[in-house]
Amino acid sequence: MMTTETTTTTTYEIAPATLHAMLDQVLIGVARDDSRPVLTGVKVTIAEGTLTLASADGFQLWVLSTPCQGADTSAILDASTLKGSLPALKAAIKVAGKYDTDRATITLTLGEHASIDTGAARIALLQVQGTFPNYSQLIPTLESYATDAGCHIALNGGYLAKIAGAAAKYGDSDILRMRTTTPKSPMRLDWKTEDWTAIAIVMPMFVDWSTAPAPAPAPAPAPAPAPAAKYPYVCESCNESAIEDGADRDISGVMCTEFGADMADHNCDAREDGTNCACTGHDY
């Protein structure tokens, strides 16, 4: 990216696809009412070789950054005129595809006057007077998050859906990193591409977790089925199945009164006097 300076303005060269993607996302975080006029604009900052766009509405904060060489400067640009530049940037993206990378840029002018020049159109940008909040102090550092910390947090579902949509539309992957430390701490969300990085900060909603519905208890395990009896003969006193062949107790030498043979030799069925029952002495 190139820069040109005059006494009142500075121009910067930037790829139209990069600026379009960044604006399309950062405009989501702009305040919708004018109770704080400064929040109806987007803070544009160029410092230390980085172009940063930021927006906030008191409940969410969006910050997108991309490399950009040039003199340090900043401005608050009216969101409505920035939104009006999106169709021209989109057209410039199509035109840029026909040229090499050296020509595939548009000009962003900041200073006394602000504008976006795509070559085919020049869009004048209104500026908002005032002091934009020092949002950098609102962004928790990555070191402040403990990777093994866990907590519950309530967030505005609408904000979360828009952030997830932007990350899915413009991010290089399906990964949206979400970090928080306590239910009262801001939620930090990060996504990126090779050209720019994005951070969104969403303030938590305060709810009474003690009144939240308790999770449904896990269903009780089904009782184990009763073992099938080895024989149809069962002790009426203890429901013990008859021993199959004497393997569970030594009945060698015990003669079967019915067959006149050793019970251990021919797998004799349970006898009427219980001598082949695990609890000998009970009657069948």
Question: What share of residues is helical?
Answer: 10-25%
What fraction strand? 15-25%
Query: What distance separates the N and C termini?
Result: 98 Å
Tally the helices: what do you get? 5
H/E element order: EEHEEEEHHEEEHEEEH
Oligomeric state of the chains present here: single chain
What gross morphology would you assign?
A: elongated
Largest sheet: 7 strands, antiparallel
* Adjacency order of strands in the biggest sheet: 6-3-4-5-12-11-10
Average of pLDDT: 76
User: What structural class is derived from the secondary structure elements?
Assistant: alpha+beta
- Total strands: the figure is 12
Global Rg: 38 Å
Low-confidence stretches: 1-7, 228-236, 242-251, 269-274, 277-284
Secondary structure elements and their pairing?
Blueprint: E1 3-5, E2 9-14, H1 16-26, E3 41-47, E4 50-56, E5 60-67, E6 73-78, H2 79-84, H3 86-96, E7 106-111, E8 114-117, E9 122-125, H4 157-170, E10 177-179, E11 187-192, E12 197-202, H5 263-266
Antiparallel strand pairs: 1-2, 2-7, 3-4, 3-6, 4-5, 5-12, 7-8, 8-9, 10-11, 11-12
Helix pairs in contact: 1-3
Task: Please tag this protein with its features.
5-stranded antiparallel beta sheet, 284 residues, 12 strands
